[in-house]
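We emphasize that the prediction below concerns an isolated chain of 228 residues; any contacts that depend on oligomerization or on bound cofactors are therefore not represented. The input was used exactly as deposited, without trimming of termini.
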Amino acid sequence: MTLVYAHRGDSAAYPENTLLAFRKAMETGAYGIELDLHATSDGAIVVIHDRSLERTTTGRGYVDEQPLAAVQAADAGAGERVPTFAEVLGLVGDRLHFDLEVKQPGIEAGVLEVLAAYPAVRWAISSFDWAILQRVRVLAPGAELWPLAMHVNQALLDVAAVLGSPCVAIDAGAYTAASARALSDAGLAAMVWTVNQPDEALRVRALGAAALCTDVPGEIAALFAGED
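Result of the prediction step, given as a token string:
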């Protein structure tokens, strides 16, 4: 069974990483939500993919160089604003599992502090910056950590072993029969991203992916339900 995660919420239909996108994701049949974390200059943990505000909002400049009030003054689409991490956890609660991609070094303790206020929430932390995951491991020995990677290679297998990771998050283009076998041989599950086409979703599932991340969670969840 391949679990479906909504990439930045139901992001093909609604503004990514907003409360609206996450609210709609809960209606799609997805198992989980993937989101991205940065911190503002005054230390608030917020949900946005880019360090810059410019691609996804009407704001300008960098998230980490502005206070929360300035970041949230920007329109993130459809009248939505950049949500705080706490707002998203409060909205979703334990209804869906979270894949929390930490984008910014140095915010690990802040992320864990917010999570501590929501003990019922189910989550794993992922990052391309494996040093972030190593710092989280020190701060939270029981945390589930998913290294993100563009390729399956020995470096990925080694860091997963060091971190005690049960799962790695892999670009769909790198998830082949050979790499799926290498992960399986290492005892690792695969979260595959970003999968939007039905034939690709079925390919990934046939190779044994534990989960996939998609911008169209309703479509992929319905596809899998029809195949089961």
